[in-house]
Amino acid sequence: WQVLAIYMLLAANLSEQQALKQVCPSCDASQLCNCFSMGLDFIPHGLTAKITVLDLAHNRIQRIQSQDLQQAVNLRTLLLQSNKISSIDEDSFQSLVKLELLDLSNNSLAHLSPVWFGRLLSLQHLHLQGNSYRDLGQSSPFSSLRNLSSLHLGNPQFSVIRQGNFEGIELLHELWIDGSNLSQYEQGSLKSIKEINHMIINLRNSNIFSEIVRDLVYSVTWLEVTEIKLPVLKKSLVQNSTRPFRMQKLTFKEAFFTDQTISRAIVLLKEITSLKELEGINCALQGKGDWSMEEIALSGQSSVETVTITKVMIQNFHLFFDLNGLESQINQLKSLTIASSNVFMVPCKLARSFSSLLYLDFHDNLLVNQRLNETICKGSWPSLQTLNLSQNSLKSLEQTAKYVSRLPKLNNLDISQNNFGEIPDMCKWPKNLKYLNLSSTQIPKVTSCIPETLEVLDVSANNLKEFGLQLPFLKELYLTRNHLKALPGAAPIPNLVALSVRTNKLNGFSKEDFEYVCDSPLAVRGTQVGAVQLSLLECHRALVVSLICVLVFLLILLLVALGYKYHMVWYLRMTWAWLQAKRKPKRAPPKDVCYDAFVSYSENDSEWVENTMVRELEQACPPFRLCLHKRDFVPGKWIVDNIIDSIEKSRKTLFVLSEHFVQSEWCKYELDFSHFRLFDENNDAAILVLLEPIQGETIPKRFCKLRKIMNTKTYLEWPAAEEQQQIFWENLKGALKS
């Protein structure tokens, strides 16, 4: 009985594994079990200890039961997102002590149970967002998750966060909360988490913004708030505490501000002395810059060193004030980015107040040369080292260089993607300029306008046909996507370390060009050009790939033409019909034979067949039962199956031959099948009736056996004279009875 018990256990286990293989074929002999989007209503049986990754996402699973995952003890990743899970047995995850990632997002969980996660001691990543729970319960569902690194939770119905909900969590790398409809936050709820590197919260209720920030200033390094309509903050964002501030970066994404909220926020954020970076992405400002400058000035100096504003929308931005009075608040700023925000100028007085600014990025704005004179006036941006003016509307390179030369410490300038079109012979630049990006500026040549002080020059994607400048300090030169026919000479740029000349029209090398050292492909990096022997594919990869594609296309055309000429489609169809016929008995059982004859004829001969032949045979005594495709084929059934079944259920097959028959595609198919099914059996199941004389060469050559039968066996020919037609009918009836 013990042997029998073991045998039964092994047999049951084997059957479960076979069932698992049928449901998820990738689970067979693999640590990764991929059951993604397979329409499953349940977790498949047969999961074993060898599986470490189980993907059941995007199915229709509604419940997780105790035994479903019991054997998967080595599971590291369990993906159950986007199902319909509304019920989880409390001990469903009890055996998953090695689990590191659990994704239950986008399901139908109406509550969270601490028991689910009680044994998940190795869990690092937990995703619970997109369910239907309204709160996290009265206590913490995560109290046993000591190794948790990232936690995603919340949903459009999530409305309450209580004290104690996060007890047990001390350190998180990322905390993401969908609180779009959060209406109640108990003060101190998030305080229990000692350290959070990055927290993202979707928050539309502006009334609880201050309460959340007060709890987070001591624990979060980077706080990201989305979709908030910032209120006019009245209370301090800082509590009396001896703990040091931790918040260093604050991001507002898709937020809405007014002049009043901006003014108050600037004042209150100064209290968070650890804050170094402010960021706004896709935000909207309703106002004209009418900020409370006096209150802002009296509140003291800001600790923020980096401000990044991307895609801000200001209604009536042309009416925006010049921010006069803000000068005292920006003199400690080190980095400023205002991108894709319709900036067309900066007042000179304000620009002169950025006394400590090192990095300025105005890319993708509306700056023009006339306004650039005001934006970069004398004495402005005195400490600036890096300036990005790419993707603006600058037209004159000479004027741009002139205004930029007012920046004494500038060494890095990006003015790419401006449509300069022309380049002057001489330009005035900052004395310390080391990096210059002139790519995609439509310049047709390079002249002495390019400063000799450069160490890096990018003139890619222009219309250059040659490059012959003397640049003694240049180390990197980018000439990609131009029209160069020869490499630049080595002598004028003796310190060159890197040269990029992809996508040009190089057609030859000079002797000194062979002294260059290759950087790519990797296989020849560090080798002199003269010593490299590259294959045709490596040198002309695009050309070779194009030629291969053309050859493949021509080969396909050739095969199609040959197939058409030599009836390849016919042979394929015949092979298919033969394979189908081989699976069936050569003759249908007598009980399945329903008809005396299956009639194969052209639609153009239907009047004679249906009105003359059918009436004569079916009204005979005894009557014959004929199978006609118009009358007896099963509606909705594939026509090929109808033909095969009708022939097999008929004692004879009667072909009404005519010129129309030979041209009919489906008549050809009926002949094809009979070719295998009837003629190869060496019997007389086929009856040929010539409705009209047919020339031998009219019959397709591929029907060789049909041609042979017509030459060796008797066939019936429909006589034109009425006195001979009675003899025809008697002969046909005799053939059907044989």
UniProtKB/TrEMBL annotation:
Residue ranges of every copy of the TIR domain listed in the record: 593-736
Gene Ontology biological-process annotations: inflammatory response; innate immune response; toll-like receptor signaling pathway
Keywords: Disulfide bond, Glycoprotein, Immunity, Inflammatory response, Innate immunity, Leucine-rich repeat, Membrane, Receptor, Repeat, Signal, Transmembrane, Transmembrane helix
Subcellular location(s) of the protein: Membrane
GO cellular component entries: plasma membrane; receptor complex
One Pfam family linked to the record: LRR_8
Superkingdom, natural source: Eukaryota
Glycoprotein keyword on record: yes
InterPro entries per record: Leu-rich_rpt (IPR001611), Leu-rich_rpt_typical-subtyp (IPR003591), LRR_dom_sf (IPR032675), TIR_dom (IPR000157), Toll-like_receptor (IPR017241), Toll_tir_struct_dom_sf (IPR035897)
Key word Transmembrane helix present: yes
Membrane topology label: Single-pass type I membrane protein
PANTHER family noted in UniProt: TOLL-LIKE RECEPTOR, TOLL-LIKE RECEPTOR 2
Record protein name field: TLR21 protein
Organism: Bombycilla garrulus (Bohemian waxwing)
